[in-house]
Design a protein that fits this description.
426 residues; alpha+beta; Beta Polymerase, domain 2; Jelly Rolls; 3 domains; five-stranded mixed β-sheet; four-stranded antiparallel β-sheet; 15 helices; 15 strands
């Protein structure tokens, strides 16, 4: 139905005697009505935030409605996506919650733990209204400074009389493609419709789109989206833009393929994702005039060691970061488990924090007579430091366990950094 609404208005031109024309018009009226019903409960909050002096940058469907009110019957809106400045996100949340808007689901525990900057957006509800408050426009770009150019190019607009900001046409197209191709779980209809409309308006600065895509290291999803629009919908980006994105996409293909190929990425995809996030973190350092410390992380900084009760089939290890691993350092995370050498069951581990997973997969065979097995990965400390993340968690799951079988005896999680630091224990 959402796709039908966008094409129904052309049926009168393409086939004036089409017998279902009246029904198609009814679908468009339904989409328009549903969108207004979704916007109505959000408008008072948007107006209140604007009157309180908060800049509000609309993205996705709400941005298209503000830019082209006539599209309200083409595009169904279920919620309103708003980007607030990173340094004011806490105040925006307090304002919204004071007006009766509430977080739901897993978000409640996360925000109560003070982890508001851990994710790029939070969904709040009030009655039939739903608003996604972003402090980063794209989930893959969550380092300070990632959205600076987006804000600098934003233009003033109005959403039903409420003063808002809209992304530039190039930024809007980029956001539309990435949110649709990389993050959408509902197929292609909405993002493809919005992207085609953006290209049809003819005001996209393709140089800006190419430069911002390169700066955000999003060549793989943007190239995929533009190629689809060209091949399936006949909307063409300039050939030199496509060529530039294609030639620079290779280092990030593993990250993208891990998303599109499986709901549970394997070890290669997880490592590819960590590598891509690491590149973006180093870029964020460069914007601050900082360089990654070339010293290898070959000195043990700290470790957490824990005996594991014989009956446990799942447990966690948590290691806090400290100032001995600094913002510009490389760091190595190593997780080790000790099993009886003859153990036949499999042990799966996930290392990381929400949205910054470093590794997921099975341990290999025992490395010594004591039965130790290990997994490790090296990343820049900025990957965590820039986001205010101060700890790492490993979740270990033991599979294929037989009755009475000895499982994991002990586990340890280690943090390694440059040799200038002195070893210690947590």
């Amino acid at each position: 139905m959402r796709l039908i609404a966008s094409i129904a208005k052309r049926m009168a031109e393409l086939q004036p005697d089409y017998p279902g024309l009246g029904r198609l018009k009814g679908i468009r009226r339904f989409v328009w009505s549903q969108s207004q019903m979704r916007l109505a409960p959000v408008r008072p909050l948007l107006r209140s935030l604007a009157e309180a002096g908060f800049p509000l940058l609309l993205i996705k469907g709400a941005a298209r409605h503000a830019a082209d009110p006539g599209s309200a019957a083409d595009r169904l809106i279920r919620d309103v996506d708003v980007v607030a400045p990173l340094d004011r996100v806490l105040d925006v949340h307090r304002h919204a919650r004071a007006e009766g808007w509430e977080l739901w689901g897993w978000q409640v525990e996360e925000i109560d733990r003070g982890l508001i900057t851990r994710h790029n957006a939070w969904s709040l509800r009030k009655g039939e209204g739903e608003i996604d408050l972003h402090h980063f426009a794209i989930g893959l770009n969550r380092n300070p400074g990632d959205d600076d150019a987006l804000w600098a190019r934003a233009r003033p607009a109005s959403l039903q009389g409420i003063p808002v900001l809209l992304p530039s046409p190039a930024d809007s197209l980029l956001l539309t493609i990435v949110h649709g191709v990389r993050f959408s779980e509902e197929g292609i209809a909405d993002w493809a419709i919005d992207a085609a409309a953006a290209i049809d308006r003819g005001d996209v600065d393709w140089r800006v789109l190419a430069e911002e895509t390169q700066a955000r290291r999003l060549q793989a999803p943007v190239y995929a989206g533009l190629s689809y629009l060209k091949e399936r919908l006949g909307r063409r980006a300039p050939d030199d833009v496509l060529q530039a994105l294609s030639s620079a996409a290779e280092p990030f293909l593993g990250e993208f393929q891990g998303f599109i190929s499986s709901e549970t990425p394997g070890v290669p995809q997880m490592r590819a994702s960590a590598a891509a996030l690491s590149v973006r973190a180093v870029d964020a350092l460069s914007r601050r005039g900082l360089r990654l410390n070339p010293a290898p992380p070959d000195r043990l900084i700290k470790q957490f060691v824990a005996p594991v009760p014989p009956e446990r089939t799942q447990f966690r290890l948590r290691l806090t970061l400290d100032d001995r691993v600094q913002l510009t350092d490389r760091m190595r995370v190593r997780l080790q488990i000790q099993q009886p050498p003859q153990a036949a069951h499999r042990v799966h581990v996930t290392v990381g924090e929400p949205d910054i997973y470093l590794f997921a997969g099975m341990f290999g065979p025992a490395e010594d007579a004591e039965g130790w097995r290990s997994q490790e990965i090296e990343v820049p400390a900025a990957l965590f430091r820039l986001r205010g993340v101060d700890s790492l968690t490993a979740v270990v799951r033991i599979k294929d366990v037989s009755a009475g079988e000895a499982m994991v005896r002990s586990a340890r999680m280690q943090l390694w950094g440059p040799a200038r630091a002195q070893p210690g224990a947590s």
